[in-house]
Amino acid sequence: MTKPMGSKCNLDCTYCFYLEKEHLYAGESSFRMSPEVLEAYIRDYIAAQPGPLVSFAWQGGEPTLAGVEFFRRAVALQQRYANGKTIENALQTNGTLLDDAWGDFLAANKFLVGLSIDGPATLHDAYRVDKGRRHTFAAVMAGLALLKKHGVEFNTLTTVHRKNSTQPLEVYRFLRSVGSGYLQFIPIVERNATAQAAEANGLWLAPPPDHEDAAALDSQVTDWSVRPADFGRFLTTIFDEWIQRDVGKVFVQQFDAALANWIGQPAGVCVFSEHCGRALAIEHNGDVFSCDHYVYPRYQLGNLLNTSLAGMVDSPQQQAFGTAKSATLPRYCRECPVRFACHGECPKHRFLSTPHGEPGLNYLCAGYKRFFTHIDSPMRTMGALLSMGRAPAEIMSLPRSQWLPATVRG
Predict the structure, then answer these.
(1) pLDDT tens for residues 185-200?
(2) DSSP per-residue string spanning 28-65
(3) Which of 43, 51, 236, 344 has the greatest number of beta carbons closer than 10 A?
(4) 210 labelled catalytic
(5) What does the alpha-carbon distance between residue 124 and residue 138 come to, in Å, rounded to a whole number?
(6) Is the dihedral of CA 22, 24, 28, 33 positive or negative?
(7) What global pTM score does this model have?
(8) Do the Cβ atoms of 24 and 110 come closer than 8 Å?
(9) Which of 12, 292, 314, 376 does the annotation list as catalytic?
(10) How far is it, in rounded angstroms, from Cα 219 to Cα 352?
(11) CB-CB contact of 398 with 362 (8 Å)
């Protein structure tokens, strides 16, 4: 995940965990990625890819703050260093700065745009505000209209927080109505840092838990974070509507990943994979971190101006980071009947203790367990359809009595 503007953003969303990362670079006057860093990154990233397809993911902060010309330069560099490989680009944006120049560029260069939107106006505007604390829904919808006008392929990223998590169908039906065919639901889980930690590094959100540091587990969940039970209901309620009418027409990341795990294929998303560590974050100045959610000094792998990207990805530090996801699972998780589908989700969220007092339980465990138990029968049925060379969407024409019986019990 490449941060061409670092944590800089024109919005001030209440729940954003990345805005505070500006404090890690407090002495810098510019957060725009320099031409030197951009070229080094593109050259090394393409060279490090073993396959014929190279995918770039531009995020932030807000990457469109870098301007269209920055991305024209990026595309030109990609073409220079492609060496016969196919290049594709994805841009995650809040959409509020898009105009016709952006539309022309994104369409001409076949960028896939991820648009951040949290549902209809009342739910979106609950936390997604600008620097003046003004609502942003209208500006985001204008950006969406601009993407449609120029024929830019887009999907939607929706954070699931304390406000919208209790309105799952309102959120889902809204996203479907605006033409999103691929939906990502990202649970918001953040903790307030201890006063001592906040004073020491200027970061008001707690870092990912370290089981060797008991004090890290004492901080409190923010009041905008989604509740575990609400998140479980959010996913199951949407799934129940999706399985009746939208299979094969609307793609939901959690459902796709679940089906992959049910049939023994890679989940395709790090949080539901057995190991992680392949989704590094690259800051505007070339600093490379183990993960987008682990941009803290202790997780810095180096800087791409003096260390190769491949070397950082394959370093002992990063390899240990990736395997720790599985290695640190508490016994309660290792013996869970839905471990194959969850794999403990994101280690950042593992700050609870199990019923037996062992640390490392995911905060969202109860919600995920409800969701994965709930979808077992339809997932097994869609898996059986796939094994027969048939489309999973055929499940919509089958009466529930013909679904395979569930084997997972909560």
Answers:
(1) 999 999 998 877 777 6
(2) -S--SPPHHHHHHHHHHHHHH--SSEEEEEE-SS-GGG
(3) 344
(4) no
(5) 10
(6) negative
(7) 0.95
(8) no
(9) 292
(10) 11
(11) no
